[in-house]
Amino acid sequence: MEKEFHIVTVGTSIITNAQKAKIAGLKGNEKMGDEDFWKSKLEDRGFLREIILWVKDNPKGASAELNTLLRKVEGKDYDKIGIYLVATKTSVGEICKVILETVLKDWGFKLFTGREISGYFAEASKYDEKYAEDEFKKGISSILDTLIYLAKKKKEEGYKVYFNPTGGLKAHVITCALGGFLTGCEVYYMHEEFKDVVSLPLLFYLPKGREMELLSLLSDKKPRSGEEFKKLLEKYEEEIERLEIYGLVEVEKDDTNKPFRIKITNKGKLIVEELKRENRK
Fold this sequence. Notes:
Elements: E1 4-9, H1 13-21, H2 35-42, H3 45-57, H4 59-62, H5 64-72, E2 81-88, H6 91-106, E3 110-117, H7 121-126, H8 129-156, E4 160-164, H9 170-182, E5 186-189, E6 198-200, H10 210-218, E7 224-225, H11 226-245, E8 249-253, E9 259-264, H12 266-280
Parallel strand pairs: 1-2, 1-4, 2-3, 4-5
Antiparallel strand pairs: 5-6, 7-9, 8-9
Helix pairs in contact: 2-6, 3-6, 8-9
């Protein structure tokens, strides 16, 4: 069997389903944004143990993530399947991640250290909303770059890479799916009303013409500034604006909001490499 690597976003379905079932003392009216309450539950081993046993007894019913993942890997050797969980940096997100890690490890899956993304609620409970919003945006951008790098690396190591964006906030789902599209990996998903897993079609922006010309120039990943950047801006102003929108280049600005440096992103470099590879075939 070919080695597989599944990147899975983690939502709060385990907790919301546990609330509905009144498991582990949950009443159903607990707020997801109540950091103090869920932090106390994260430190409660008895609570976690009861939820874990409940999830193991009915994994597809208890967890949206497992409902999708287990259908996708049915009949396969779990010890040849790697899992990378992407959770929100909140106490309730950490609870769901810990539970999934424990269950998957016990079943024989190989767990890789996953990333946490700003979940907004944790920052908003401690700081102002503007800071929370900024951290949320930074987290989304950072995790996309990480997922692109990770998918590429695992493909080079001989894994077949999958993206499972079933769980998490809508922004996290979109980011995970986009990572799969940009790296040419299979993205699978299951809506509550679907009876089976659905693989999504490959969707992303393909640069062309002068855009590819610029990306090729920047593909050594060396930032261009000073006169070199000025010349690029004069020649490729429209292309730079379009590529920046799609996250294929990054334009840095100074304190006066004036652009002064440009570099290719991991997404941009990946697309250049993939398109060149296709052209060589």
